[in-house]
Amino acid sequence: MEPLMIDQIRLNFNATGITIINAAIGLMMLGVALELKIDDFMRIVRSPKAPLIGLMAQFILLPAFTFLLVLIIKPHPSIALGMMLVAACPGGNLSNLLTYLSNGNSALSISMTAVSTVVAIFMTPFNLSLLGQPESGHGGHFNPGPPESCRCVCHGISDPGDSPHDWDDRWPLPA
Predict the structure, then answer these.
(1) With b meaning 16 or more CB within 10 Å and e meaning fewer, what string describes 128-162?
(2) pLDDT tier for residue 139 given thresholds of 50, 70 and 90
């Protein structure tokens, strides 16, 4: 596939499919949560070293290494942006399920997912604004600026089903 053709791909999810996916994820997370006790989370609060190292790796090291990889391999701008976006976003519920299935520390995984989701409201726009700017070798670059990035992230979290075309009408940026 030519690099420019990838920009033409559109993913269309219908409401029924999204509802089924959300229900399946909810049931999986319920299964994981049934095994946990409050003491599991209290151990993490008493010894926060592991979550702090994990959050540093997730929001500093992963985006930085992805940035270096983009500079080395020089992908098409849309692919480079996708790589940076994936690296800047928090982990999801699948990591909690896989941690549980591999007999890992599920309480730690769930705690990190919860904290990283909140931290991502600020760190995702910051990382995209900071690391999403380099020339990709194909004449394109990405530089939305922190206000627009924060607006998009906050809106995506608060109303993920809304159309991006409505954003400017509802939440205009200050001049």
Answers:
(1) bbebbeeebeeeeebeeeeebbbbbbebeeeeeee
(2) very low
